[in-house]
Amino acid sequence: MLGLQRRDPDRLLPADPETRAVARDLYRRVADRPILSPHSHVPAELLAQDEPFGNPAELFVVRDHYVTRLLHAEGVGLDVLGVGSERSAEPREIWRTLARHWHLFAGTASGYWLQEELSEVLEVDEQLTEESADRVYDHIADRLARPEFRPRALFERFGIEVLATTDDPLDDLTHHRALAEAGLPGRVVPTFRPDAYLDPSAPGFPERVERLLAATGSAATFAGYLAALEDRRAYFVDHGAFSADHGVVEPLSAELDAVEAERLFRVALSGDADTDTARLFRAHMLLQMARMSVEDGLVMTVHAGVFRNHSTATFQRYGADTGHDVPLPTTFVEGLRPLLERYGLEPDFNLVLFTVDETTFSRELAPLAGFYPSVYVGAPWWFLDAPDSIARFRSAVTETAGFYRTSGFIDDTRAFLSIPARHDTARRADSAFLARLVREGRLTVSTAEQIADDLVDSIPRRAFKL
Amino acid sequence: MLGLQRRDPDRLLPADPETRAVARDLYRRVADRPILSPHSHVPAELLAQDEPFGNPAELFVVRDHYVTRLLHAEGVGLDVLGVGSERSAEPREIWRTLARHWHLFAGTASGYWLQEELSEVLEVDEQLTEESADRVYDHIADRLARPEFRPRALFERFGIEVLATTDDPLDDLTHHRALAEAGLPGRVVPTFRPDAYLDPSAPGFPERVERLLAATGSAATFAGYLAALEDRRAYFVDHGAFSADHGVVEPLSAELDAVEAERLFRVALSGDADTDTARLFRAHMLLQMARMSVEDGLVMTVHAGVFRNHSTATFQRYGADTGHDVPLPTTFVEGLRPLLERYGLEPDFNLVLFTVDETTFSRELAPLAGFYPSVYVGAPWWFLDAPDSIARFRSAVTETAGFYRTSGFIDDTRAFLSIPARHDTARRADSAFLARLVREGRLTVSTAEQIADDLVDSIPRRAFKL
Amino acid sequence: MLGLQRRDPDRLLPADPETRAVARDLYRRVADRPILSPHSHVPAELLAQDEPFGNPAELFVVRDHYVTRLLHAEGVGLDVLGVGSERSAEPREIWRTLARHWHLFAGTASGYWLQEELSEVLEVDEQLTEESADRVYDHIADRLARPEFRPRALFERFGIEVLATTDDPLDDLTHHRALAEAGLPGRVVPTFRPDAYLDPSAPGFPERVERLLAATGSAATFAGYLAALEDRRAYFVDHGAFSADHGVVEPLSAELDAVEAERLFRVALSGDADTDTARLFRAHMLLQMARMSVEDGLVMTVHAGVFRNHSTATFQRYGADTGHDVPLPTTFVEGLRPLLERYGLEPDFNLVLFTVDETTFSRELAPLAGFYPSVYVGAPWWFLDAPDSIARFRSAVTETAGFYRTSGFIDDTRAFLSIPARHDTARRADSAFLARLVREGRLTVSTAEQIADDLVDSIPRRAFKL
User: Fold this and answer.
1) Which is nearest to B395 in space by CA: A383, A147, C289?
2) The pLDDT of residue C85
3) Taking CA atoms, what residue in B is nearest to C396?
4) What is the interface pTM, i.e. ipTM, of the complex?
5) Alpha-helical runs (H) found in B297-372
6) What is the pLDDT of residue B84?
7) Residue in A with minimal Cα distance to B368
8) Shortest Cα distance, chain B CAs vs residue A18, angstroms
9) Which of B292, B324, B448, C400 could potentially form a cystine with B434 if both were Cys, beta carbons 3.0 to 4.6 Å apart?
10) What is the β-pairing status of strands B187-189 and B160-164?
11) pLDDT at residue B6 above 80?
C-alpha cells in the first residue's frame, strides 16, 4: 500500500507550485553532496569485516527497533520477529509479517526510510504487499548476495566522507585501526560514549569501573578514575575520534569539591549509591566531561530526556533497545547552568544539545545557542527525525538562533542502509523550509542557496570539528 | 458576521488547489459514513424521552459551557445567560446577547460548530447578526417544534450507529434499557464513569461509597469496595457498555499491597484523607480499574490533566461545568508506568489516553502507543478538538505512531446537535492532513483512501471494541 | 546576503496565490493605521531631548542585545562590539563586524527587522555585505545627521499615536512632563515597573525600599510600604500611565494575613530573606499589585518565565540585558489562582499575561482568557515576536479564545527605529493567518476585515484601556 512504484522526485517538497520550484532548485544543489555522519550507531565491525548483509528480515526488521516497535504495538510478539536471544523465527516468515502489516508504517518516518531503502538502494520496483512479499524478499536477497551490495561498496556508493561510530571507552578500536588502513574513500572514526562508566545506578557499575581502572593502570581513587577516563579519551583521540557522547535522563550538572567527589566515588564504587547520590555523581561527572572536552578538544554531545526500558518484562526477556524508550519532559536552563558557568564561554569548546522534548527548541535551546559560543542546537533526534518534525524544529529555532547555531544533520542510526535516506530526508526538509522563507520574502534565493550548501557542509564541519 | 449564507463545500480543506482536490476526494469518501460516537456526554434521557428540544437559547447557549465561557469572558454574567439555579433570563434575550457578541466566536471551534448546526441541521440561511437575531430565533423555534427535529428523528438523520453516554456507576440505566427496546437505527450504550467513587478528596466521597456498598450488598472493606465496583461494571457490561472512563488531574498509578490498600480505604472512608493519602489512593484505584478492564474487557479511557472549577466563586454560585476548567502541564511516562508494567502487555486490554497538553503527543503518547499493544493515542480532546489542533495532533503523532495507534474521533459532547458537525470537522481535517502527505509524495492516493476509510470505521471499532 | 534591494511587497504573506491575495487585501487595510505601542522600552529621554541618533553601530548593534547576542555566539567578544563600560571599540569597525557576520541573522526576527529598518526607514538601497559595509555606514550616518531623522520627526513619520515607556517607580517623569507639553502628534506615557522593589532577592532591595519610603514619607512598616507604592502609582497615573508591568520568573501569587506580611517585610528589609521567604513575599506582592490595579485602574501586565543573566561572568563584566536571558518552563494555572480567585472577576481589572513558553498558549492562557473577563493573552513576546511564532500563537490561541481575548500587538522594544518594522510584521502575520481562515471557509472576508481592523485598534485599546 505505502510503496510507490517510482518515487516522486519532488517528495517532501512543499505543495505550493512556486515554493516547490524554489525548493527543488535548492535540493538539487545538495542532493549529491558527500554525507557527513558525525553521530551514528553503525558498528565499525560491519565495515571492517565487509561481509554480505544477512537476509532481508534480519536487515530490515529484526535489528531495527523502530520497526519491531510498531509491529509489537499491533500485537506481534517480539519472539515472532526474531528479536532477542531466542531467535527461532524463520526470516521469510518475519518478512511476510512486515508485509502484512505494512499499512502501520504509512506516514511514519520508519516507513518512509524503508521505502527509500527498498526503492533507491535495493532497486525494488514494486510495492510491498502480502502478495508481493516473497518476490520482494527474493529480489533483496539476490542483491544482498552481490559484491556491490557489501558494506564497503555501499559506503562508497553512498558517498560517505565521514562516519562516526559509537563505542565503549574500553573498546580497543581494532576495527577502526583496520579501517584506517583499508583505503576506504571516507573516514570511519570512533565516538567516546562513557555513560555506563559515569552512572552509579547502571547495573554493574562497580565492576565496570574496576575494569576501567585496571585497563589504564589507575588508582582506585576519584583522581585515578578521572585519569583513567582521560587516558581512554586520549586513546580515542589518537584513533580519530572528534566527539564524546553523553546520554542522560536529566541534563544536570554540578560542581563538587574534591573531598565530596572522592566520597561519592567511594559510595558509588561500593554499589551502595542511593538515588540522590547517583544523581549528584552523574551531575558532577557531566561537568567533568565538559572539562575534559575543553582540555582534549572532543566535541561534547548530550542526548537528554529519554526514559529507557519502560517495560521491565520486555527488557528482561529481550534486552535493551527493543522499542520501549520514551521521552520525558526536559529542561536544560537550570540543570546545565553549572557546566555553562564554568565552560560555556571557553573558545574551543563545542557542546551539542539533543532533545526529544520539542518544547525546548524555541524555549531553551535556541536562546542558549544564540548566546553561548559553545552551544549548538542538535538536529532533530530519534522520534523527531522526520519531515514534519524537522519543519517544526526549523520553525522553532531559526527566528531566534538562525541556521548557523544548529549542528547540521546527524543520522543517529544503527541501520547502515538507511543513512542516505535519512540525509536525503533532511536535505529535502531543509530545502522546503528555506524555500518557504524565500517565497515569503524573508530570504533571497542566493542567501537560501548559501545556507542550503552550508547546512550539509560548513555547519556540521564546524559543530563537530570535522 | 461569522455566518456564511451558504457553507463553503471545501471548508477546512487545504489552500493549495492540487492538495485541495486530493483532500476533497478523500473527504467525499467518508462524508456520509455512519457516525461512531464511542465517547459522548449526551444524556440517554434525551433520546429515551424524545421530547422536543427547548428554545434556541437553552439549546445553544445556556447548556453549552463552551459558549457561555466566551460570553462570560466578555463580561456577560452567567446569570444573564440563564446558567445555574437562578435561571430567570428570558430565552429570546439570551439569544440576542449571543447575536450581539457573535464576533467573539470568529475562528473558534465553538463558533464553527454553531454555524454548522444552524446551517446544516436547522436550515438557517442567513447570518446571525443583531438585526437577524429575532428572525433566526423564530426560525429555529419553528424547526424545533417539528417532529423531524426531535432527538430520535435527528439520531436517525445524523446516521448514528453507536452512541455511548457517560454515566454514574449507580445509574440504573433505565433509559438505556428503554432505548434498547425502542428500535432505534443505532445503539445507545452507557459508559462506566466512577471518578467520584475513586477520589477521597471529592466532596461526599464517604457517603457515595456507602451508597455503592449498600446498593451492591458489599462489605465495608477494601475487598468489598472492589467487589462493589466490579459488580456495577458487570451491570454496565450487561447493558452494552464497552468502556469505562476515568477523569484524573494527574495520570498517576501505583500498586499497593492488600494491608496498605485496606488502611488507605479506611482513612478515605472516614473522610480524613490528606492530600498525599488521597493521591496515593487514587493512583492505586487507577491501577485497579486497569485490572478490572483486563478482566471484564471494558476499554479503559483516561482523560488527564484538567484543573476543574478554577473559580471558586463561580463554582459556588453556578456549579461545575461552567467554563473555568483549565489544563495543566501533564506527563504520562512515569505516572502510568506501574499500570503499564502490570497490564500494558495484556492482549485484550485497551487503554485510550486523552490529553489537553499537546506537548505530550509527540513526546509521550505516540512513543507509548508505538510500543504497548494496549495503548491508543486518544483523539484531540476538548480545547484541542478543533481544525488547527487536529492538524497539529496528526503532525505530532503520525511520524512516530502512524494512524493505526490512534483512537479514531470521539465527539465528547453534551450538545447533541453538534455531533455531526464535530465528526464532519474531524473528517475534513484528517482528509486535509492525508492530502498533504499525498501531495508531498509520502502516501499514494490508494493508501490515503484506505486510511481515510479506516479512520472512521475499523480504527475506532478496534480501539473501542465496537 | 540577507538584504533585498527592494523589499518584496508581499513579504510574510502566505505562498498560495489565492490566500496571498486575500492576505494582501487585509494587510493593505491596516498597513498605515496609527501605531499603538502600549508596552515598549524606548527611553522617554530620547524623545524629550530629541538629539540625533549616534552612529550606525551604536544604533543597530551596541545597544541591541538581540543583535550582540548572535555575534557573541559566533565568538565575537562583547568588548569588540562596544558593549559595557569599557567601550573602546571603533563604531565603523563594529559595523564591519556586523556586515561580516550578516549571514548569521538570515531567517531571524532580528535580521528581518534590521533589514526593514535599513530599507524602509534609512533608505538603504543595497545589500549589506563586507564590501558594501562602509558605504552603507556612511549612508546611514548621513541620514542620522538630518533633522528629519531625529527622534521626534521619526515619531511623527512612524505615525505613533501612543507610546508607553517603562519606568522606575521613583522616576520623576520629567521627560514625560516635557513631552506632554511638546506638542507631539501622539502621547508618550510612563509605565510603572516595580520589580526591583518587590523582590527581596534583588541586589540592593533594602536600600531601594528605604529610598521609596523616604521619597514618599512613608513609615517603615508593611502598611507604609504598600502606601508608598500606591503613592507612586498615583503619581504615574497623574502622568498618563495606563499600566503597571511585572517581570517575574514564576507567575506565583499568594495571599498572606497582615501579621505574616509584616513579618516577611521585616525579614526582607533586613536583607536576610532566604529563597522561600523571598518567593512567598514576591507572590504576596503580585497579589497586592493586582489589588492596586483594581483600585487605581492601571492595567496589570505580567511577563513571566525568564531566567535572567544566565552567564554570571558576562553579567559581572557587561551588566544585565546582554543577551543571556533564557526562558524556563512556565505554568500559570495554579500559581495565579490565588490572584484570580481574589480579583479575576473584578469588572474593570485587566490582566495581560505574557509568556515565552509557547506551550502555555493552548494549554493555559487561551482557556484562562476564555473565561476570566480580566485576563487577556499577551501578544507573542521576545523570542516569540517573529513571523512563524506569531502564526503558531494565533493557531494555538484562536480556536479556544478567538481574537478578542488577545492583547493586540506590543513591540516591547528598546530599539526605536524598529517600532514600525515590528508592528508591520505583526500586521502582515495576522493578515496571513486571517487569510488562511478565509480560504479554508472558516471566516467570511468581511469578518476577517473587521478582525484585522480591530487587531490594530479596538482590541489593544480595550486591553490596555487606551
Assistant:
1) A383
2) 67
3) B389
4) 0.97
5) 312-318, 337-343, 359-360, 366-369
6) 82
7) A326
8) 11
9) B448
10) parallel
11) no
Res B5 pLDDT > 70: no
Q: How big is chain A, counted in residues?
A: 466
What are chain A's partners, defined as 3 or more CB pairs within 8 angstroms? B, C
- Residue C338 to residues C248, C290, C355: CA-CA distances in angstroms? 16, 11, 19
For C382, nearest residue in chain A (alpha carbons): A400
B226-247: string of b/e by CB count within 10 Å (b at 16+)? bbbbbebbebbbebbbbbbbbb
**pLDDT one-digit tens code per residue, A193-232:** 999 999 999 999 999 999 999 999 999 999 999 999 999 9
Q: What percent of chain A has pLDDT over 70?
A: 98
**Residue among C19, C363, C436 minimizing CB distance to B357:** C363
Q: With an 8 Å Cβ cutoff, are B402 and A107 in contact?
A: yes
Neighbours of chain B (3+ CB pairs under 8 A): A, C
The answer to whether the CB of C421 falls within 8 A of the CB of C411 is no
Question: For chain A, what is the largest distance between any 2 Cα atoms, rounded to a whole number of angstroms?
Answer: 68
Flag if C105 and A402 touch (Cβ within 8 Å).
yes
In a mutagenesis test of the B interface, which of C400, C436, C446 is the best target, namely the one with the most B β-carbons within 10 Å? C400
Out of A345, A401, A403, closest to residue C313 by CB? A345
The pLDDT of residue C87 is 61
How far is residue C336's CA from residue A390's CA, in Å, rounded to a whole number? Answer: 35
**CA A163, A147, A189 angle in degrees (round to 5)?**
15
Task: Please tell me which of the candidates C4, C106, C310 has its beta carbon nearest to residue A451.
Answer: C106
Rounded Cα distance between C63 and C42, Å, is 12
Q: Between chains, do B329 and C363 touch, taking CB under 8 Å as contact? A: yes
Residue C86: what pLDDT? 62
At C375-409, the pLDDT tens digits run 999 999 999 999 999 999 999 999 999 999 999 99
Q: Which of B11, B108, B328 sits opposite C331 (nearest CB)?
A: B328
Give how far A332 is from chain C: nearest CA, Å: 9
- Sorted by where each starts, the structural domains of chain A and their CATH numbers stand as 52-149 (1.10.2020.10), 159-463 (3.20.20.140)
**Residue-averaged pLDDT of chain A:** 96
**H helical segments located in B172-327:** 174-180, 195-198, 205-216, 222-238, 258-270, 275-296, 312-318
Residues of C in contact with A333 (CB under 8 A): 307, 310, 326-328
- Closest chain B residue to A14 measured between Cα atoms? B440
A-chain residue closest to B329, CA distance: A329
* DSSP SS3 for B160: strand
Give Cα separations from C119 to A446, C112, C264 (angstroms): 19, 11, 54
Task: Provide CB contacts within 8 A for C259, sequence distance 6+.
Answer: none
Please say whether the dihedral angle defined by the alpha carbons of residues A230, A235, A240 and A243, taken in this order, is positive or negative: negative
Q: Which residues of chain B are within 8 Å of residue A364 when distances are taken between CB atoms? A: none
Q: What is the pLDDT of residue B87?
A: 61
pLDDT of residue A86 exceeding 80: no
Answer yes or no: do B2 and C444 touch at CB < 8 A. Answer: yes
Distances from the Cα of C455 to the Cαs of B129, B223, C26, C430, C433, in angstroms? 21, 60, 11, 8, 12
Question: Cβ C383–A371 below 8 Å, yes or no?
Answer: no
- Neighbour order of strands in the sheet with B187-189: B35-37, B160-164, B187-189
Nearest to C441 among B10, B17, B108 (CB): B10
Nine-digit cell string for A393: 524544529
- With CA atoms as reference, report the closest residue to C337 among B283, B313, A98, A445: B313
Q: pTM of this prediction?
A: 0.97
Give dist(CA C384, CA A437) in Å, integer. Answer: 17
Average pLDDT over residues B19-47: 98
